[in-house]
């Protein structure tokens, strides 16, 4: 037995060998280039700690931070026909769907849930841009209708988080038909006297912007979110002119009256609670996630006196 070869050399190599680091521990901010540790980024709700850029967040992550205690129940969405047009480009449509489901762990591009936010019962729906660009297909249309019907049945407000590149081309005209379908769903809420709040996140474009994403009773956007029908590059190529700085970004739309608020993600939950309780005629919230206590008999007598 060679003691140096069999013991000393492997021992030295183990001490000085390069340790493998998992690739998913760090995320590079697309805005400022800062490398962000995954735990720090999760604690900051996927917002860059250096430049405050809002990175993409999945519907489940959003709901865990939105609902009280992170607890929510998914609302069942009717399944549409899997491949109505038999569409194929470089890949078959079913193959693209399998890949998207494997990459995201989600069934489709929208998640619908019910729960309480600041002790206020709500229905929430959120699009997942990582699932085929959050594209609006028949499932997304069914999801919004299911959310509206559930809200009407339980007499709850509906809060929707949009994030989409537009209609899903693999479903053709059937995808475009979701624009009027979702508009009818929003009208159901209006007829029932229920609040409908839309939070537009980056990016919200195409047919989504031309339908349910711009029909809210209150329109809120995350900072610097791109919100448009046709993108700025398409417009510049069409009119052959340079567009203004920040054109079609959330702050620009707020200045021009298309939005009601631009709210930081870390302040969004508290703002939604305040707006929902105001629109539903409930007492204003107090510290934490609790609503204000009911007035005492003495306070009630003073008000009526």
Q: Percent range for helical residues?
A: 25-40%
Order of helices and strands: HEEHHEHEEHEHHEEHHEHH
Largest sheet: 7 strands, mixed
User: How much of the residues is beta strand, in percent?
Assistant: 15-25%
CATH architecture of the largest domain: Alpha-Beta Complex
Number of helices: 11
Structural class: alpha/beta
Count of spatially separate domains: 2
CATH superfamily label of the largest domain: 2-enoyl-CoA Hydratase, Chain A, domain 1
What is the overall silhouette? globular
CATH class category name of the largest domain: Alpha Beta
Tell me the CATH topology of the largest domain: 2-enoyl-CoA Hydratase, Chain A, domain 1
Q: How many strand elements? A: 9
Distance between the termini: 100 Å
**Roughly what is the average pLDDT, rounded to an integer?**
89
Please mark out the parts with pLDDT under 50 across 5 or more consecutive residues, or reply none: none
- Radius of gyration from CA coordinates: 24 Å
What spatial order of strands do you see in the largest sheet? 3-4-5-6-7-8-9
